Amino acid sequence: MVTNRDNISRKLLNPFKGDKAVWFIFLVLAIISLVSVFSSIGYLAASTDKTPESVFMRHLTFVVLTFFVVIILSNFNYRRFSGLSWLGYLVSLALLVAVFVVGHKSNEAGSGMSRWLELPIVGQFQPSELAKIVMVIYLARLLTQEKENLKEWITLRNIMIPVMLLIMLVVSENLSTALIIFIVCFTMIRLAPINVNHWRLTILGLIAFAALALMIGNKFDIPFLARSGTWSSRVDKWLHFDPNELTQESMARMAVATGKFFGVGIGSTIQARLMTQANNDLIYAIIIEESGMLGGIIVFLLYTYLYVRCIKIALKCRGDFGRMTVIGLGTLIFLQAAIHMSVSVGALPVTGQTLPLISSGGTAYMCMGLALGVIQSVAYDNNLTEAKEKRAAAQSTASKSNNVPTTEHKGNSETIEEDKRGQ
Length: 423
Description:
Elements: H1 4-13, H2 20-40, H3 42-47, H4 52-74, H5 79-102, E1 104-105, E2 114-119, E3 123-125, H6 127-145, H7 153-171, H8 175-191, H9 196-219, H10 228-239, H11 248-259, H12 283-316, H13 320-344, H14 362-402, H15 407-421
Antiparallel strand pairs: 1-2, 2-3
Helix pairs in contact: 2-4, 2-12, 4-14, 5-6, 6-7, 6-8, 6-13, 6-14, 7-8, 8-13, 11-12, 12-13, 12-14, 13-14, 14-15
């Protein structure tokens, strides 16, 4: 007989709940992160008058804290995130408005829109990183609650209002993040039982509206669209790339070209000593420089396999909320990784997106840890459900062979499950 004390001991001895493959990928990405960040923080350390060791220790601290965040969240009943998501959504809106009003500029010259809040103890905090995680969970809640009415246009419209409100607040500080949220949210909506024609018309209408807004932003000095000139300039530089101009993009491409297939060796990077964003926005280029295309392919396959595992977790989930949440968060992680890698090799214009669970940056790294923790919470619940069904089937088989009613085992089975979830 399994006692409550036995269940508590098992939980303490095995804190890594959820999908084992996801834990393995997270561990490998964390190791890659520590190695590549240590190789690429020289410029950052010099520009901030800090030693490379102190900058590295700060990143190491965030990596360790993120592991604990994932462990803690994976032990939660994921259904509780549904009830908390509306509060997280309101907090995200408030923080985004605060960034717009009192946030710090995106560069030392003070040009561009604000991106950061300076918080006590925490330091620099970028609310858009938290907002995209919260938006996915909140949208999963809305789609689950309105599942029976999603084919009606008015229901779809009401769901789109909070999504577009958050995107409009994010777009002023970070267009690429807003586009990622847009793509992920409308992918989730498309997978829900909606009227496809409503979805298509909505996409076309929003694209037309965005194009018109960018045109107006280029002609008039509108604070909300102050960075539209920067966005156009980045696209223009990408389309008319000048290899002789020494920029972040050209140095990233040189790093990729230098790496060839096997790389120059770990710690032997040259471009990272000159690049201001080598440790975050363009770290994939440094990974390729040091480990070659072989290392770049391995990193890409890790993210691909992580996405595949997320899809499998979603398919096993019995609840609509858990399924939509995992699909949304998995798509978010993979899409951001794909965009970062594409930028680093010159396939897309510069966006400023970090490489999830590898690039340095406390806010971005820990927020991706939040996403991974929620995914593992759903995976853990799936494991408990499967274990319960197998145990019930075994008890049913044993009861039939011994002619014993199955009802006498039901109470003990449910008690064990409740003990495992800590409820």
